[in-house]
Amino acid sequence: MPVTFSLPTVLARLADGQATIHAGGTTLGEVVSEIADRFPRLAPRLRDASGGPYPFVTYYLNDEDIRFRNGFATPVSEGDEVTVVAAIAGG
């Protein structure tokens, strides 16, 4: 099932400059895993060592924050859109 996965510019650099990636899976975790396999340099920025989402990287599935759903266990469907928002620190 193709899902559209949108990355911010800072992460797109690690995906060969692609800000939009299409991937498949039945859960968000499967989609993230497929993308991590395709772009190994991006992988450690998408999930922690145990395979879960970082607290400072927010995933929106069709504009809904997955932290209020089932995290990476949230089901996805063909045509869904995932947007990744990485926290930026500065001073």
Keywords:
five-stranded mixed beta sheet, 3 helices, alpha+beta, Ubiquitin-like (UB roll), 21% helix, single chain, 91 residues, globular
Please state how the strands of the largest beta sheet are arranged side by side: 2-1-5-3-4
Overall shape: it is: globular
Using only C-alpha atoms, the radius of gyration works out to: 12 Å
Query: Would you list the SSEs in sequence order as H and E?
Result: EHEHHEEE
CATH hierarchy, class: Alpha Beta
The proportion of residues in beta strands is: 15-25%
- Which whole number gives the mean pLDDT? 93
Q: Outline the low-pLDDT stretches.
A: none
Question: Could you say what the CATH architecture is?
Answer: Roll
Would you tell me which CATH topology applies? Answer: Ubiquitin-like (UB roll)
How many alpha or pi helices? 3
Explained architecture:
This protein has helices spanning 9-12, 28-38, 43-46, and strands at 3-6, 20-23, 57-61, 64-65, 81-86. 21% of the residues lie in helices and 23% in strands. The protein has a single domain (3-86), classed as Roll (Ubiquitin-like (UB roll)), CATH 3.10.20.30. A hairpin with a 2-residue loop joins strand 3 (57-61) and strand 4 (64-65). The model has no long low-confidence stretch (mean pLDDT 93). It is an alpha+beta fold.
Write the layout of secondary structure elements.
Blueprint: E1 3-6, H1 9-12, E2 20-23, H2 28-38, H3 43-46, E3 57-61, E4 64-65, E5 81-86
Parallel strand pairs: 1-5
Antiparallel strand pairs: 1-2, 3-4, 3-5
Summarize the structure.
With 91 residues, the protein is α+β, with helices and mostly antiparallel strands. It has helices at 9-12, 28-38, 43-46, and strands at residues 3-6, 20-23, 57-61, 64-65, 81-86. It contains three helices and five strands, in the order E-H-E-H-H-E-E-E.
